[in-house]
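Entry 12.
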Amino acid sequence: MLSESRVVVTGATAGIGRACAEALLAAGVRAVLINGRDPTRAEAARAAIQARFPEATVAVAIGDLARAQDAQAVMAEAMRQLGRIDILVNSTGGNDTPRLLHQTSVEEIPGILERCLFAQILSCRAALPYMRQARQGTIINIASDAAKIPTPGESVIGAAMAGIVMFTRGLAMEGKRDGIRANVLTPSMTSGTDHFERVMTDPWAGRMFAKAEKMAALGVVSKEELAGLVVFLASPAAAKITGQAISMTGGISAL
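Predicted 3D structure (tokens):
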């Protein structure tokens, strides 16, 4: 039952990550640890979430999960404060504004891969020993539809997102014997986030994504709607679902 679960949400001080933490608490989870890189922002988020869910345990751990040492420290802190890690939701990275490759400096590329791809791999690796010892666990990574659809301006971003998808599938195959499930969400545009606003106001990316917005005949997906899918994948109703890359796009794509 979700009420008995101990949850870690990375990149949870704002946007999709925070929406996921709040949705899981609303669904009955009673203990969650949120992660962020900025102590002030993280504490403000923790306090706001705690005020909304006064009966729950809301802990915080600071660290940049793109760094192996930080990833290990965050999961160790989660174990210290929560006692175990039943559910891990990775909402790190994915906030780079789309830009054509020839306009992206060589120096920027490693950082994009670190934020998007390395952070999720290192986070999962740091949590895995605890889940294996418990013989159970649920991992939900959040990538984007750029993992599946080649899009101008997202060649590097798409490479990182495709890496998250394949990593998650491999993790699912490795983890199933230990009772560990791993799935990945690949949303397209997600409203209600700073990243959405930044992209839509960018002179180049905004024009491109305005076309995608028109294709969302069912409506642009909100961060709260995406968080609802996370709740389902974390729940017992999804106990037999693993290794899947699930898109939620409002009709922008059908992959």
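Annotation: The CA atoms of residues 165 and 184 lie 6 Å apart. The mean pLDDT is 93.
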